[in-house]
């Protein structure tokens, strides 16, 4: 979806440690001619040597930098940083480094910022930029595991995908309340910020009260804010749904969100 519909000049896709069958399906079916027409894909399957998997990530970043230096807006998507770190772990351990944090040698956490910090705006005088989306596979849903914790501290934000939301049938399965962007305050207009903050408050209150409402421990009319959250949260959830081939816009998303929260009682 991002490669085909994002407002960018070039999409660079680094697939590190993926299964070979999934790679072919992604390129031929998901990306398709429309996506391939403006994309560069760098692949290293899970059975490749760790040096190849490491270099696939580095090559994807180098390709993105090439287009950025030409003044293009580049969307770099890398799946995944976790497998890049696992390749670095194999290389470090084979070179005799001692395992430190959960089996990862210290060099892994030195290499991560060297890769991730290369995304962003170009040098002074360059109009190009790299918007990087780096996926992290958390171990056992532990969002504080070493790689996730290190990446979260380097990047400008994180989007959390929750398995339970996907099991409930809502895609993309983004957990809005656990996701964060440090660049949002500088990107939104005041009316958009107001709508966003109110929507987050409604979703947060609904999550806090969901169990009580489900068990019948809350009586409607006891708290107007809770009543509003129970009424509007499902409408906000509907706004968060997006079909696989559906193209959206920032203005359209905020308009839909505002309309959902303005629904009459």
Automatic annotation (TrEMBL):
Domain T3SS EscN ATPase C-terminal intervals: 192-258
Gene3D superfamilies according to UniProt: 3.40.50.12240
InterPro entries in UniProt: ATPase_a/bsu_AS, ATPase_alpha/beta_chains, ATPase_F1/V1/A1_a/bsu_nucl-bd, P-loop_NTPase, T3SS_ATPase_C
Pfam families assigned: ATP-synt_ab (PF00006), T3SS_ATPase_C (PF18269)
Recorded superkingdom: Bacteria
Molecular-function annotations in GO: ATP binding; proton-transporting ATP synthase activity, rotational mechanism
Residues covered by the ATPase F1/V1/A1 complex alpha/beta subunit nucleotide-binding domain: 1-181
Keywords: ATP-binding, Nucleotide-binding, Translocase, Transport
The name this protein goes by in its record: Flagellum-specific ATP synthase
């Amino acid at each position: 979806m991002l490669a085909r519909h994002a407002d960018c000049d070039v999409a660079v896709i680094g697939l590190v440690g993926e299964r070979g069958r999934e790679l072919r399906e992604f390129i031929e079916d998901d990306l398709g001619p429309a996506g391939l027409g403006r994309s560069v894909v760098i692949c290293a399957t899970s059975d490749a040597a760790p040096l190849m998997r490491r270099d696939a990530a580095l090559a994807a970043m180098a390709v993105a930098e090439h287009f950025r230096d030409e003044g293009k807006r580049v969307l770099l998507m890398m799946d995944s940083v976790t497998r890049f770190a696992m390749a670095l772990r194999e290389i470090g351990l084979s070179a005799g480094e001692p395992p430190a944090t959960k089996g990862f040698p210290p060099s892994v956490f030195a290499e991560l910022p060297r890769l991730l910090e290369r995304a962003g705006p170009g040098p002074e005088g360059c109009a190009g930029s790299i918007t990087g989306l780096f996926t992290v596979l958390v171990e056992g849903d532990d969002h504080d595991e070493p790689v996730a914790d290190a990446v979260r501290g380097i990047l400008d934000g994180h989007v959390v995908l929750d398995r339970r939301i996907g099991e409930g049938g809502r895609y993309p399965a983004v957990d809005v309340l656990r996701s964060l962007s440090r660049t949002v305050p500088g990107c939104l207009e005041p009316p958009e910020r107001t709508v966003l903050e109110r929507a987050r408050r409604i979703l947060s209150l609904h999550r806090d009260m969901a169990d009580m409402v489900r068990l019948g421990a809350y009586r409607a009319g006891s708290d107007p804010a809770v009543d509003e959250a129970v009424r509007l949260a499902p409408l906000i959830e509907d706004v968060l749904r997006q079909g696989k081939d559906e193209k959206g816009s920032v203005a359209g998303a905020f308009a839909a969100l505002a309309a959902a929260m303005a629904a009459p009682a």
